[in-house]
Amino acid sequence: MDEGVDIYKANFSVISAILHQLFDSNNVSISVEDLSHEQIWGLLQLAGYIPEPQHTFNQEDLIQYKEYRIHTTMAIYMPPVLLFLGTVGNVLSFLILRHKTMTRMSTNTFLAALSIADSFVLLNGLFLKWLGEITHVDLQTESRLLCKLIAVLGYSTSQYSVWLIVAVTIERYIVVCHPLRASYFCNIPRARKVVCLLALLFLTINIHLLWTVDLNEEIYNNKIVYKCEGALSHKLLVDVIWPWIDALFYSFSPTLIIVMLNIMIIRQVIKATYGRDVLQNGSLMKAESRRCTKDSNTKLTVMLLTISFTFLLTTLPMNIVMIVTRVWQDDFKNDAAILAKCLLVRTIAELLMYLNHSMNFFLYCATGQKFRNIVYRMVCQRSGSNTSNVSDHSQHLYCSRTNVNACSHKTTNETAI
Q1: Which of 10, 68, 174, 279 makes an SS bond possible with 340, Cβ 3.0 to 4.6 Å?
Q2: pLDDT single digits (tens) 276-285
């Protein structure tokens, strides 16, 4: 491939000296430009300057293992399901969150951006992986430009998606625990700035991949193949260090922040509920308030647990698998049985990770009565069977990745997602 990383030109003087030694005794004049890459590799291997390639396992070697057959089946048939449900769900979520009655809440600005980010993650990650599985063509190896762009977009969009959830959680924390500051921090203009700044931040963090990632040439079955990975001069950074940094940005830090803030939100809600019961002692509204508060606290607890455990269970496995395979990848390559198991575990972890970017719409519907009502109203309006106003449903929207619920009336900044 002409667009590959030309390691021969990068080491021109060394290769020329080796070839000179090989042909000098026979009085043969030859230069690097006169030979193809395959010829150079063959000559250097014959001379003992390049070790024989390590044994690699092909499909025929692995197909005998049940784990590999399960991996292949899941890799072919599961991605289309997630792609369809995730794409349709994210589009519907974006349309509902951008409805004129929903744009009054700053939280929905984050959720609308989240729908777009999740769609990019599915397209840039899951779709390309599935396409490579069924066509056996990796678009990242088709050109240096695609290799670099896909790497930058892959890291940036996935990290951006997760930190939009963190931003929503922080906003909910401010509304519940510091209500007097909510009007200053939790407004639409500030939410739009945060959305843009987060996008710029993660693009800046990962922009180095444009020059630290490249197409590298390797010998496979006596042929040169190309892999999109760390450039020869940056392999330590990209292949060893960066997976840890990505795990920190994508899973470990967001999970810790979300869990801690959710705990503080729950404590504050319980404390506020107890205080209202004391103040309302003897009031005719006490019974109704207690019933409403109890129901709200129950829904809040379920929603917070859903957020934390769904996020943790769907993202943490992939980061663990990436780190383990980076550290012990040589051991996996030397044993076909272990490699088959590793491929299956990695496929399951990847599908769980992409499930996190595919299921938001359905979690919104499952945990948010108001969100469901808006969906029903929009469907009915389109069918002409119901034209009633949906503005009464714009006061509250439960979200699988957000943090509050209440029955009592709230201001615009206090409306829960």
Answers
A1: 68
A2: 555 555 554 5
pTM (2 decimals)? Answer: 0.73
Q: Which of 402, 410, 408, 406 is nearest to 173 (CA)?
A: 402
Per-residue model confidence as pLDDT tens digits over 61-77: 778 889 889 999 999 99
- 356's tokens: 């996190």
Question: Whose CA is closest to 94, among 164, 153, 174, 152?
Answer: 164
Q: What is the pLDDT of residues 338-353, one digit of tens each?
A: 888 888 999 999 999 9
Q: Rounded distance, CA 202 to CA 200, Å?
A: 6
- For residue 26, the tally of other CB atoms under 10 A from its CB is 6
* Domains present along the chain, CATH in parentheses: 59-275+291-379 (1.20.1070.10)
Determine the Cα–Cα distance for residues 260 and 341; give it in Å rounded to an integer. Answer: 35
Cβ-based neighbours of 211, under 8 Å, separated by 6 or more:
148, 231, 234
